[in-house]
Amino acid sequence: MSMSALLRVSSGSEADIMAGYHYPFMSSVSGPYFMLNGLNAPFWEKISQARAQFHSGQDNHFPHVRPNILRSWQRSRNANVPPVGLPLAMVGAEEFQAVLARHTTLVDTASRIMEELLENILPSKSCIVLTDADGVFLHTIGDGEGYGQGSCCLLRGIISRESVDGTTSMGMCLEEKIPVCVLGSEHYNPHYDGWSCAAAPIYDNEGELVGTLSLTLERDKFHQHTFGLVIAAAKAITEQMRLRMLLQEVQTVMELLGEAVVVLDAGGSLRLMNRYAKRLFRVRGDVLGRDFSSIATDASGKNPAFTGKKVKDGECSMLLADGTSLHCLFSSSPIPGGGLCITLRETRRVHALTNRLSGAKAVYDFGDIIGDSDAMGQALHLARMASGNSMTTLLLGESGVGKELFAQAIHNGGERRQEPFIVVNCGAIPRD
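Above: the chain sequence. Below: its structure as tokens.
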């Protein structure tokens, strides 16, 4: 997903979020963005003075401090976070590997979007951080020199929560579960005064918070669109994770299907082939992108399975790459935008399944019929004559006299003995 696409993700709901961050120096613009006007030395001094008063226990009215920032300061103080110094909490190496293993999909999905986001951020001193729901740094990129003792903001395994390092965008985002930006002296710890950061939550398919995405820049280079970019990127990660989960579910279902599934693009190249299809066409390994004609062809060039038309329960024959023939029942449906989805079932397997489900299998022959009366001999003679041709044979007799034994013997005595033996319960057929 391109950054232009990320920008389009923004919606009116984010404008409501932005409204909660209004300062006199923030002027509204079109969409959920704000202009940072008047962020000069006097302003930062006012915020710094308010924070110093707060740390000294003076819970006065702070008109220059945003309400959400003040709430975060209060939570940080209640958690006994030191107002000075640089608290640094990290998980152990073994524990971190376990954390990574639990968030493989999140890291894999987010890392690609983070790389593209970084390419669109002009300042060199910036870093993008992905955390889990506990504030553990899972993946970091960028140049964090000067932010938190050298490049410590790029160390995976660091823990950032309000209860650890006070007010930061990541900690506030985890606490309030909404997008947050923290500018300069709004940080609880003065060590971060030279930086501004924005963070947005990432959710799983059930709507549970699984992590945050944050971007940190030098304080005076925090662009008017930074907040919107971070929100859009976090939404893109959430959506990509949802799509990946949906794809995994579809693939799991396809592998459980008792039929081959093949998806071709408009040019006839393979886009998808499930495990059953690979066995059916006798191929191994990754075949995606290959032209299907390299796997199976039709000598006549008129194979109905690949005409691009919608077909239900058709029949087709194909020549495989190893020279063997394949006879199948198939259904096909065009894909909107180009391509074709085909399901195939081998004909002989369909016949075998039909016989098994119907319980129909001819097991008796003429040698199994016991009897030496004239009537029995005459019946056997006529039955043998019937088995020698493909004419329809009508067997008459009272219930229990052995009509089915004769039917099976006639079937097994004829040229079609290898074909399916189909039983029809005539008593169950409606009169109308």
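The chain has three domains: 3-249, 257-347, 360-428.
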